[in-house]
Amino acid sequence: MFSTYYLPRKKAHKRPKESDRRHFFLSVQPSLNLISLILRRSLRRRLRQGEMAGKSNKSKAKRAAQSSSPNSTVSALQPDVPAAPAPAPAPDNGAVEAAVPETNEVPPPVPKEDESESQVASNDDQPKQGELRLYPVSVKTQSGAKMELQLNPGDSVMDIRQFLLDAPETCYFTCYDLLLRSKDGETHHLEDYNEISEVADITIGGCSLEMIPALYDDRSIRAHVHRARDLLSLSTLHSSLSTTFALKYDAAAANKAQNPGDKPNVPELDCLGFMEDVPASLNKLTNSPSEEIKCVESIVFSSFNPPPSHRRLVGDLIYLDVVTLEGNKYCITGTTKAFYVNSSSGNILDPKPSKSGFETATLIGLLQKLSSKFKKAFREVMEKKASAHPFENVQSLLPPHSWLRPFPVPDHKRDAARAEEALTISYGSELIGMQRDWNEELQSCREFPHSTPQERILRDRALYKVSSDFVDAALNGAIGVISRCIPPINPTDPECLHMYVHNNIFFSFAVDADIEQLSKKRPSNDLSVTEKVSSSEKVPCKDKTCDGEHNAELNSCNEVPLIESEQATYASANNDLKGTKLYQEADVSGLYNLAMAIIDYRGHRVVAQSVLPGILQGDKSDALLYGSVDNGKKICWNEDFHAKVLEAAKLLHIKEHAVIDASENVFKLAAPVECKGIVGSDNRHYLLDLMRVTPRDANYTGPESRFCVLRPELITSFCQAEALEKSKCNTKTDEGTDIVSEPSDASADTSKTGDESIHGEENGALTSEKTVTEKQNTTADSAAEISKLCEEISFNPNVFTDFKLGGTQEEISSDEENVKKVSSYLVDVVLPKFIEDLCTLEVSPMDGETLTEALHSHGVNVRYIGRITNGVKHLPHLWDLCLNEITVRSAKHILKNILRDIEDHDIGAAVSHFLNCFFGNVAAGKASTNTKNQKKDQSITKKSQGRGKGKASAKKTLSSYMMVDSNMLWSEIQEFAKAKYEFEMPELSRTTAKKVHVLRNLCQKVGISVAARKYDFDATSPFDATDVLDLRPVVKHSVPVCSEAKNLIEMGKLQLAEGMLSESYTFFSEAFSILQQVTGPMHREVSNCCRYLAMVLYHAGDMAGAIMQQHKELIINERCLGLDHPDTAHSYGNMALFYHGLNQTELALQNMGRALLLLGLSSGPDHPDVAATFINVAMMYQDMGKMDTALRYLQDALKKNERLLGPEHIQTAVCYHALAIACNSMGLFKLSHQHEKKTYDILVKQLGEDDSRTKDSQNWIKTFEMREVQKTAQKQKGLAATAANTQKAIDLLKARPDLMQAFQNAAAAERGFDERAARAAAEVRKKAAAKGLLVRRHSGVQVPPQISQLINAGTADSSKKSGENGEAKVEEKKKESSENGKTTNVAAPAGLGAGLTSLDRKKQKAKK
Q1: pLDDT of 861 higher than 90
Q2: CA-CA distance, 883 to 866, in Å (whole number)?
Q3: CA distances (Å), 1123 to each of 157, 452, 1256, 1286, in order?
Q4: In this predicted model, which residue has the larger pLDDT, 337 or 1370?
Q5: What is the mean pLDDT of residues 1041-1053?
Q6: With left for phi above 0 and alpha for psi between -120 and 50, is residue 1231 left, alpha or beta?
Q7: In which band, very low, low, confident or very high, does the pLDDT at 742 lie, cut at 50, 70 and 90?
Q8: What is the mean pLDDT of residues 101-105?
């Protein structure tokens, strides 16, 4: 929920794009040896130190002002601070400032909460991990300006260049050298890969840097022009709606300060409105792009390019045509030294400088001299970028797919620069210089030392950077492969075996094979057939030991059924990726894996891998040393290789076992038979084809289920459970039993969070961390024992296959029994527990993605979703969620089959027709009358599996598919769901699918983007071809995570659960510092870390600090997960609660409205989380005094929970309690008592009478009873006083007969007047109605003033006498109010946490 972007002392910077990174690599790209040197020497040091911490004088002054704020997180986190929120700061003291930090530069400011002065003083001598001592160094820029950097001796020159690239003063300088002048007068020329400490000692002070213009070359001058274009555009600025809310609120607050008489008007949200009509709110999701500030009409490469040879000899490198906003046209020459305007006009080049004589070292500097409008506009652009939140300027490495695009579609305007860039299609490769050797970079990074924390940070960052760049390059390359823009390396082979090499990445196709094909076309002994033909299998075939057999098998592609000749199946590709991840996490020294990514695009699945060294050169030294290439017929074995594999097998719970090949030779393996252990030409040991690292699922043993393997999370969970059981059996004393029972809870919590821990040692460490606060020594021994027992449990991955196993029959039976046991554990323990967690809302998925993540984190394969669906039939929201997920997954496979054979010009029509058949009701019989032939031709899941069959075939497929109707499509979906998920889809499934969140789920899984407009799902054809706006690839990858930060987060969560705020804050801060250095800010793990930081600050009472962290987490979620991801919705909800804690209710309601919109789009309006959000909205309106609105939301939340969860669910009790609190605020104590009584009854039934929450509810009931008695007593006192006043008035009238007569006369006159007035009024209303006017009714006769005065005079006496009574009432009300404040401190029932009680406390603070 909450995030932070900072190092403890060192300023953090945005990670540059790859194109930005190259701006300061101006020389020819270095050789492979130099790259290796860079990786091993400079990058290691640079990454260890983290991002450079420089700042300008301006930003330094601003941070100094910010740090003077009295609020300090550290002071709030002292151990003696209570957990209850402290008084919130005033709204004017930085609430919005905390949410939207101001800065004059791209890098984000270090939050003032990081550390207090006392901490800095205490740590001066020994800085903590991640804290680096900084020294001031002045910088003289190319323009002659002065600025100051705060540097560390370990900073590299690339760090300095990156800061200068981000700083507003120097952002447009790209080609320069750096000179370092030391205190003793020496001058040092800095190379890009030098560290400052290697050149001079800056700790003594007096050092300065100077930027010296360098000479441009062809590469660097083009990079300079591209950089200038980027600076002039706001397209890289991704503004969050939360930032917009805060800025508008800030402006409104400023207006209010100028006009203090204006009352704030908080408009009512339309949440209930768009919850009822979710399709109409689609256009509210997409963020409007930043409005561009035009600086120049155009900057394009001139048609005079390239320079003629005689001009090249005098330094001309490039010519540019520029049109300024004033309409002036210039032809600019870029030379090795500068830019200037030449004298060219028309079609003849005149290289002489123009009369103006302007010449500058940068393009932007020249344009500023040529155009005053450019100078003004450029200043506005830089100011807008600087005023944005720093995270909004950071580029996300792998941005999520956006399934909605703005509607109406924005006009496509001319952009010559964009056209120039699009003309050169590189598909991810370098245009100039040698291509990157992905495998060498990756393996070199893995060989970095990692014995110390700093070395591990360095290594993790290098691996993350290289892996992310590889995925990006693989994505672009896969698009080129599928678009047939990259030729295969084996064009003479059958199309199903085509392979591609581009940008040093190997590409191969995986073809989808549905269940029916596997069962019908595959023989019963099919497990012996080749499972995968990929890059890894092409290597061993060059070895003479297996060349003949392997090539014979490949050449038989056309003779065997299509399914047997496909290169890989979807399942094997997924399993291979999972296996690669597991071995990467095992991280065994000397054992390597290839980089890998899976790209789904236009119905094709492409597997991208880094190239195995030596494969493209046909090097015979690439030999198969381990495993088999022919499914066990011939098995290779090597002792050294086996030792490495065995070391990894111990961490992955893989048993060493015997396997017999076709020649009856027995081999001891510790991996699947079909894996390949190969020594590359670089002498590294590579293990490939890891499709069955975990054993097969014993519940699915048929020939069609050969890829049904167990998930690694299940293996880990089972091993932990078994180890705990054995440990309990070995423990004799009661004390020992208590000790080992606690890690059980820890392991359960770990499984709920979905962390995929492979190492038994790590699991033991986490378990030990849980119990170390109670009994350190005993717990450490227990954890070590459990860890040891866990490591001893292993499985044979080759059981339930057709491979011939060695050993005795008892050993084989024992191995099979172990696999059956874990498979039974999945069905008998894990699945029921998961269903129970779903029902109790311990696990609460919102959409298909979060449901899949929850399944995987619990070790459950998606193929079990049918069983889960049948287990949650009694809960409507879970039934709909699981049913729709089955429907979408089945439809996805059908749609991919269609897209595979569709030509480019038919994609929009085919996709829209499919969506109409899926969501609408397309009737049959439009083009064909032969139902049988139509059914045969249109069998969507049974058609060809190869790539496109040519234009004629594609047209035929499209025309046949266009005749498919809704009934036919849904019949295919039902068959697929039954075959793959073992689920009989009900008839109502078609109706259930007619929802926006189902459309969202399908679009995200296939990569479709549709127009953000309202769709009528009740129409026959809701979609048009123009509604399909884009088709993007969907990627799965193996980018590593940072284990160091992961362990810190786990320890922080344990500390937070125990209420140790200061310790947990320390752990989360260190974890964030490491993550920021490893991944940069735009990563999901950073977001999770920041969520916990904000949670700690919230519990410590620092609302402003919590808002700062929450805002960062929100921006990260929007950029990394998507605008409508459930986590993004919850981020908005948390932001709203924090704003409400600062009494900024209007801003809170805006964020809460956004949260409800996103929840409606991701899960639909019928979800318990929506009801819980309604309760929070109601509490906000209740604090504002708008009780009618609050009650409406509470009643709607109650209806949702009763309908979705049942009348006796704990969340229903939460709603009743909230209603009781609301009625209590209105003085309706009897209703409060009734609602709380229902709360109590539910809690008694669900939790029992002894539960603390049940007792709290009972206390509330007593409180409401007491208040009702007090109210009744007050009412009786009031009635008595009224009776006494009436009697005195009667006595007065009896004593004054003249007054009695006057009253009687007035009454008679009133009756007579009423008769006439009624007739007159009726006539007037009749005429007014004819004219369309509105006439107010007459108010009647008033009592004469003198009579009312007499009555008042008569009652004055009694009023004086009852004065004491009135004062007593006021005192009683005050007492009751104070009682309200006391009772709100009672803990709220289950599910509420501190939410309601904290809201009541906030209300009291506001009144004070």
Answers
A1: yes
A2: 8
A3: 37, 39, 39, 67
A4: 337
A5: 89
A6: alpha
A7: very low
A8: 32
> Which one, of 648, 714, 664, lies nearest residue 656 by Cα?
648
Q: Per-residue pLDDT tens for 1151-1168?
A: 998 899 899 888 888 899
| CA–CA distances in Å: residue 203 to residues 146, 156, 163, 1205 | 20, 15, 20, 65
Read off the pLDDT of residues 789-804 as tens digits, 9 standing for 90 and up. Answer: 787 889 999 998 888 8
The dihedrals phi and psi of 340, each to the nearest 5 degrees, come to: -150, 160
> What is the number of alpha carbons within 13 Å of residue 842 lying toward its C-beta?
13
Residue of 932, 931, 936, 899 whose CA lies nearest to 915: 899
Q: Which two tokens stand for residue 195?
A: 């560290």
Give the neighbor-by-neighbor strand order of the sheet with 499-502: 499-502, 505-510, 604-610, 596-601, 1034-1037
* For range 515-539, the mean pLDDT: 36
Closest CA to 879 of 889, 869, 894, 887: 869
AA letter at 572: S
Mean pLDDT of the chain: 74
Q: Where are the beta strands (DSSP E) in 651-744?
A: 657-660, 666-669, 676-679, 685-688
pLDDT band at 549, cuts 50/70/90?
very low
Which residues have a Cβ under 8 Å from the Cβ of 1129 and sit 6 or more positions away?
Answer: 846, 1154, 1155, 1156, 1158, 1159, 1162
- Characterize 889-925 residue by residue with b for buried, 16 or more Cβ atoms within 10 angstroms of its Cβ, and e for exposed: bbbbbbbbbbbbbbeeebbbbbbbbbbbbbbbbbeee
Residue indicated by tokens 């994505």: 475
d(CA 1099, CA 1058): 13
> Which pLDDT value is given to residue 333?
94
Order of strands across the sheet that contains 804-805 = 666-669, 657-660, 804-805
- What are phi and psi for residue 232, nearest 5 degrees? -85, -5
Name, in order, each residue with C-beta under 8 angstroms of 47's C-beta and a sequence gap of 6 or more.
Answer: 457, 458, 461, 462, 1077
3-state helix, strand, coil in the chain (%, to 5): 55, 10, 35
pLDDT at 347 > cutoff 70: yes
Q: Are 998 and 963 in contact (CB under 8 A)?
A: no
Angle at 339 between CA 334 and CA 345, to 5 degrees: 75
For the four alpha carbons of 157, 160, 162 and 168, in that order, the dihedral sign comes to negative
**Coil, strand or helix at 103:** coil
Report for 76-80, 299-303, 1092-1096, 1159-1163: range of highest mean pLDDT:
1092-1096
Phi, psi of 5 (to 5 degrees): -130, 85
- Identify whether the C-beta of residue 304 lies closer than 8 Å to the C-beta of residue 319: yes
CA angle 856, 857, 858 (to 5 degrees): 90
Supply the pTM of this predicted model.
Answer: 0.76
Task: Return the sign of the alpha-carbon dihedral for residues 591, 597, 603, 604.
Answer: negative
1182 vs 1176: CA distance, rounded Å: 10
Which amino acid makes up residue 355?
A: K
Tokens matching residue 1170: 């929506």
What single-letter amino acid sits at 451? S
Paired tokens of 1361: 């006498």
Question: Got the DSSP string for 397-434?
Answer: SSPPP--EE-SSPPP----HHHHHHHHS--TTS-SSSP
Helix H or strand E segment including 136: strand 135-140
More confident residue, 732 or 673: 673
Contact by Cβ (8 Å): 724, 743 = yes
Q: What is the DSSP letter of 1349?
A: H
Distance CA 758, CA 711 (A): 12
Range name among 209-218, 604-613, 1235-1244, 1301-1310 with the lowest pLDDT average: 1301-1310
CB atoms within 10 A of CB 845: 22
